[in-house]
Amino acid sequence: MSTVSTPATDHSGGLARRSVSPFEVGAQSVANVAPSAVIAFGPAQMAASAGNGAWFSFFVGTVIVLVIAFSIVTFARRRAGVGSLYSLVRPALGPTGSFVTGWALFLGVIGIAAGSLCGAGFFLSTFLGHFGVTALDGILGQIILDLLLLAGAIFLTITSVRVSARVSATLEVISIIAITVTLVIIYFKSGNVFDSAQFTLTGSTFGGIVFAVVIAILGFVGFESAASLGAESKDPFRAIPRAVMGSAILAGFLYIFATYSQVAQFKGGAAALAKSASPMDDLTSQWGLGFLQPVLDFGFCASFFAVVVACITVGARILFGMSNEGILPAFLGHAHPRHKTPSKAIWLIVPIVAIPAIAVLSTGVAPLSATTYIDTVGVFGYMVSYALVCVGAPFFLKKLGVKRVLLATVMGVIGVASLAYVFYANVFPVPAYPFNTLPYYFLGGLVIGIVGYAILRARHPEVAERAGTFADDSAAVE
Description:
Blueprint: E1 2-5, H1 22-33, H2 35-50, H3 54-76, E2 79-81, H4 85-88, H5 90-129, H6 139-159, H7 161-190, H8 196-199, H9 206-218, H10 236-265, H11 269-274, H12 279-286, H13 293-324, H14 343-362, H15 367-400, H16 405-427, H17 438-459, H18 461-464, E3 471-477
Antiparallel strand pairs: 1-3, 2-3
Helix pairs in contact: 1-7, 1-10, 1-13, 2-3, 2-9, 2-10, 2-13, 3-9, 3-10, 3-15, 3-16, 5-6, 5-13, 5-14, 5-15, 5-17, 6-7, 6-13, 6-14, 7-10, 7-13, 9-16, 13-14, 14-15, 15-16, 15-17
């Protein structure tokens, strides 16, 4: 298939149209996934249920995510807009389906941004603690650090999407390099390169491996965020699909490598790793590399901060697109006159991100626990939006009269079934407090948005009908 962009209307709304390079588009997705942040704790969580099969669970999770990516790319090769998945699904699911997809994704990015802000603040204080600075370790100190980090995120996202993407990618690359180098050094020190127990899945059970797949899939959320740069990308119909697929493949490779490595090198194996509260710090201490801990902690802080920046970028553009369609107040659709970024939407999102982070921390919840709780709420939003994309992809192709409808249907069914299982595993059996309440926070937010849209549809149907239309379609030749 060859794809040529032939938009009839400029759907940039004053943003820096066709200015973002393919590298920067890819950087947006990589920053939103933040592999380093997942590597910090994911392998230990996986090992708790899958044991020596933890790496294999990540492999299965990667395959499932690539199936979901196939559905996203099905749209992204032919349609591009500032609203990410919200804009993509409009031709297949209509205005109502488009709004629900966009609103769920918006709740997702807010949750992940707020949770990651808590993580960034914690690791920044931990990094400073290595140099004797402990005054910011308490609740007030964590809130102050979070607000300072949020101020930095505001500056980056308003100044330039290109700068924010490059800075986020640079921070993530530094963190990935630090983790990889650390693991390679430990390989040489331990000599345990080929761990037969992991290759044979010794002691692992089918149920444990399958449950760990749930955690694995959650580690990929945000891989599609390059789609929010549809109006600003220089070559959206090529760059965005490549970024979506590329970020999923890169993250999957890193997760499998890091999980295998941590299980192989951790003294006591998978069982000991599962009990560690800070796996990478414990691993470096075990092998006499404690001097690397400040570097790793800075890297984890950078990774979480990159997520905050990437999520604000996506969320602001969803609001920007909805505003230009008349769904939201007009002022949110104004681009900065000099920087050509959705500055008004960014300023609105900032307190929405800060409030849940500050509220949870103020109750005395540990920062990383706050990250887990708030992120979990956000993940539900991503899952709903991904599922709707999987549902819509075959209908989209059928409407266009192009090939691969059957393949898209099979992929869509696998994607929806996998996401449904992930949701089921998070709510049944009913988990302990506060995890048993988290789905209801998300459902409450989702209902508020849907009710608001229903009221708009009843009062101003012509406005509601515009949902998801602020986008460009390609002239695709199959």
